[in-house]
Amino acid sequence: MIAPDAPILVFDSGIGGLSVLAKIRRALPQAPIVYSADYAGLPYGEKSEIEVATRVCAFLGRLSERYRPRLVVIACNTASTIALTHARAVLGVPIVGTVPAIKPAAEQTHSGVIGLLGTKATIRQAYVDKLETEHAGGKTLLRYAAPDLVAAAEAKLRGEMPDPAIFATAIAGLANQPNGKRIDRIILGCTHFPLVRDELSKAAAEAGLDASLGFVDGSEGIARRVSYLTDDQPWPEQPVDGIFISTGPIEQIEPYRPALSRYNLTQIMSL
């Protein structure tokens, strides 16, 4: 039997998973949440596959022992494409991963040209090649590594103003490739990136991309999957405050406290 207060554990290297948490909260407002961020390991996109797999499995193992979650969401594209299989092998709970939303983007495109923004680690993964082969046959998928968007999203959540040049560079990295001007769907292949969707949209308009350009991410699909896997499970009668737990010094989390409170993450601690 699953206890009503058993939480959903949402994991990311930083605060990018908040874009996923927002959709989970909307679908399951009563769900207890533990959000975990591995700030001591940020950024994952610059690490080797072995480093990422080792960190993710070790961190999730410790958190699962402490909080006994009903389900784990790896709300990080890099961690999912590298470590999802390993984590499922060592943890005894259902795990929902996050992968680039190539399938919905391929279904939505009219021009047949799709852009993918991600970290360096994500866009080079064989798993992304597999998704392209399975879901984007006959389409053109242009990839660009935009790791600076991670820091820009983190800065925005701290209440700072990111440099607009970061967004312009990311869009140009796609638009300046052959057929890049025909892109009508851009996949946000890192959960940090939807947090700066407005800034990317402005940069795309300034770069002269099609006015019908749309951005696609996998958060809605993740929320549906979480709802399906927890269907008929008991929940608390009233919503409860969420927990935010991070590796590294607790002081580095303080600038994020106002943003975290908007996601009902009020209990902040370090692991």
Helices and strands, with pairings:
Blueprint: E1 8-12, H1 18-27, E2 33-37, H2 49-67, E3 71-74, H3 77-90, E4 95-96, H4 102-108, E5 113-118, H5 120-123, H6 126-135, E6 140-145, H7 148-157, H8 164-175, E7 185-188, H9 197-206, E8 214-216, H10 219-229, E9 242-246, H11 257-262, E10 265-270
Parallel strand pairs: 1-2, 1-3, 2-9, 3-4, 5-6, 5-7, 7-8, 9-10
Helix pairs in contact: 1-10, 2-3, 4-6, 8-9
Descriptive terms for the model:
271 residues, alpha/beta, six-stranded parallel sheet, four-stranded parallel sheet, 11 helices, 10 strands, 42% helix
Summarize the structure in words.
This protein has 271 residues and is α/β, with parallel strands linked by helices. The protein is built from 11 helices and 10 strands. It has helices spanning 18-27, 49-67, 77-90, 102-108, 120-123, 126-135, 148-157, 164-175, 197-206, 219-229, 257-262; strands at residues 8-12, 33-37, 71-74, 95-96, 113-118, 140-145, 185-188, 214-216, 242-246, 265-270. A 6-stranded parallel β-sheet has the order 4-3-1-2-9-10, with helices on both faces. A 4-stranded parallel β-sheet has the order 6-5-7-8, sandwiched between helices. It is globular and about 55 Å long. The mean pLDDT is 94.
